[in-house]
Amino acid sequence: MTHRLPIRVYYEDTDMAGIVYYANYLKFIERGRTEFVRELGVDQRQLKEDEGIVFAVRHVDADYLGSAKFDDMLSVETTIETITGVRLVFRQDVRRDGDLLFTALVTIVAINEAGAPARLPANIRRKLH
User: Fold this and answer.
1) Which residues contact 22 (CB under 8 A, 6 or more apart)?
2) The dihedral of CA 96, 100, 101, 105: what is its sign?
3) Could you report the per-residue pLDDT of 75-85, keeping only the tens digit for each?
């Protein structure tokens, strides 16, 4: 399943050259992952309150292939590549009119309040499958 999140590029997203500042792609894909797991029925706030578990980025492998500019409409496409007991790997692409501008593999880990790895509850893993 692929989740798509439309994002418009605002002036604040751009650098002096008028193109999207490279770090903002990471913000765009963060929003994409958040909306994707929300649509799957995972309430991250509730997960923290009930289980003491939060998601943290462990690794990002990113490739910048093109430039987005002010007022462009982008699509953040998110799919889950791998799910284990404590880890999720997402593939995320940012496109403009179908053209691939940015792609990343993002490894997310579940951690407890002490920052140690935590096993995802079975009901959460089922929602993510």
Assistant:
1) 64
2) positive
3) 999 999 999 99
Nearest of 109, 75, 74, 73 to residue 90 by alpha carbon: 109
Whether the pTM exceeds 0.85: the reply is yes
| 3-class secondary structure, 28 | helix
- CB-based contact 122:104 (threshold 8 Å): no
Coil vs helix vs strand at 49: helix
Number of domains in the chain: 1
Q: Which of 15, 50, 61, 63 is catalytic?
A: 15
Domain at 13, CATH number:
3.10.129.10
Q: Quick one: pLDDT at residue 128?
A: 87
Of the candidates 71, 72, 74, 42, the one whose C-alpha atom is nearest the C-alpha of residue 55 is: 42
Residue owning tokens 């009901």: 123
* Cα(116)–Cα(104) distance, integer angstroms: 25
Structure confidence by residue, pLDDT tens digits, 50-66: 999 999 999 999 999 99
Concerning whether 99 is annotated as a catalytic residue, the answer is no
Domain that holds residue 97: 3-128
